[in-house]
Amino acid sequence: MLSSSSTTVKNLPLKRRLCFLLKLVCFVSSVLIFCEFLIYYVVIFQCRWPDVKGGAHMSEKETSASVLKAIILADTHLLGEIKGHWLDKLRREWQMERSFQTALWLLQPDIVFILGDVFDEGKWSSPQAWADDVRRFRKMFKYPVSTELVVIVGNHDIGFHYEMTTYKVNRFEKVFNFTSGKLITRKGINFVLVNSVAMEGDGCPVCRTSEAKLVALSHKLNCSQQKPNHSNKGCRDVEKLPASKPILLQHYPLYRKSDAECTGEDSAPPEEKNIPFKEKYDVLSQEASQKLLWWFQPRLILSGHTHSACEVLHAGKVPEISVPSFSWRNRNNPSFIMGSITPTDFSLQKCFLPFESRVFTIYCAAGALLVILVLAHVQLLTPPFYFAQRLISKHKAV
């Protein structure tokens, strides 16, 4: 009996240490699971699809049949083998993958549009590096059969105009089934995909082909919007499309002087807003912008490229939304656009992703608490309770 009791006493410190270690493991695991997984559900769960006119009076069945639910994001900039550090790539790709997969699971969109600059080094990547980037993209942005993914080309995917080649354009088109001047019609809604890098206006082979397709598509759409009793010989043999005015999807924004008029928490920083934009580099040229407005008379334009949010009204009636970057490498508060769209109307709502600064704050607070607990356990730091107790004892002794 005596030997048994002594063994129990000897094992008690070891059991306490193991118990404390288990508590630490549980604490650290909980913080990691929350910051790297659960936080995306907590934040994106708060996002709601916006209502369109008449949508509030429709039944759920009628709404799902007539309203197209679209997610729009831009500038993912998957890092390549040249400039991308492996740790940076691992972190950013995990963040974007978790955000995208969580958004698909919670929001269940009909279609997702990515407005260019999918890759960061597509403009100069080798065939092997390109294949690796595409493989990682497909893993991160995989989607169910109930959702469609449409990807627009950006300057980092095929290079700026002076770097753009037919080989790079065809390589991108082969992977993403993208063609400039392509029309996508869903639920009677017309979306026009534009290779804005090819809107240079200098007659280069890619530019010439791209503009010819856009002009032909413009003719089809304009014929489709004419009234049945309107006689136009040029439209007699043209394929009829839904009469809905189109929505333009492109990477470069239409021409604007700067971001000076842009507002919102995810607009450009104050020190950058008044910097003038360079035509054909930051935005499309005035000539190319006027062409697109004249050819298509769109009801909405969605663009990326600037990494910051902006709303512009062209010609006093055509709204353009610049979608901010989806990558934490480009901003602390990434977001995407949720759009409820019908053939005659649309409503947009922004959905912010977790702020990286807040995640970092949680990690710092958890780390500080962890250090305090460890020091208190090994009695290098006197817990406040015992410290107060000692002060009381000394006071009584006096």
Describe the structure.
It is a single chain. With 398 residues, the chain is of the alpha/beta class. The chain contains eleven helices and eleven strands. The protein has helices at 2-44, 60-66, 86-107, 127-140, 155-158, 166-176, 205-224, 270-273, 286-296, 356-377, 384-397; strands at residues 68-73, 111-115, 148-152, 182-186, 189-193, 247-249, 300-303, 310-314, 318-322, 335-341, 346-352. A six-stranded mixed beta sheet has the order 4-5-6-7-9-8, with helices on one face. A five-stranded mixed beta sheet has the order 3-2-1-10-11. Strand 2 (111-115), helix 4 and strand 3 form a beta-alpha-beta unit. The model has no long low-confidence stretch (mean pLDDT 89). One of its GO terms (cellular component) is endoplasmic reticulum-Golgi intermediate compartment membrane. Residues 69-308 form the Calcineurin-like phosphoesterase domain. It is found in: Endoplasmic reticulum-Golgi intermediate compartment membrane. This is Metallophosphoesterase 1.
Along the chain, the helix and strand elements come as: HHEHEHEHHEEHEHHEEEEEHH
Please estimate the helix content.
40-55%
Number of helices: 11
**Beta strand %:** 5-15%
Work out the oligomeric state of the chains in this entry: single chain
Low-confidence stretches: none
Shape: elongated
The CATH topology corresponds to Purple Acid Phosphatase, chain A, domain 2
**Domain unit count:** 1
Mean pLDDT: 89
Question: How many extended strands?
Answer: 11
Regarding CATH, which class? Answer: Alpha Beta
Q: Look at the structure and name the CATH superfamily.
A: Metallo-dependent phosphatases
Q: From the coordinates shown, what is the CATH architecture?
A: 4-Layer Sandwich
Q: Quick one: biggest sheet? A: 6 strands, mixed
Distance N terminus to C terminus? 45 Å
Please tell me how large the radius of gyration is. 28 Å
Computed structural class: alpha/beta
Order of adjacent strands in the largest pleated sheet: 4-5-6-7-9-8
Cofactor: Mn(2+)
InterPro entries: Calcineurin-like_PHP, Metallo-depent_PP-like, MPP_MPPE1, PGAP5/Cdc1/Ted1
Protein name: Metallophosphoesterase 1
Keywords: ER-Golgi transport, GPI-anchor biosynthesis, Hydrolase, Manganese, Membrane, Metal-binding, Transmembrane, Transmembrane helix, Transport
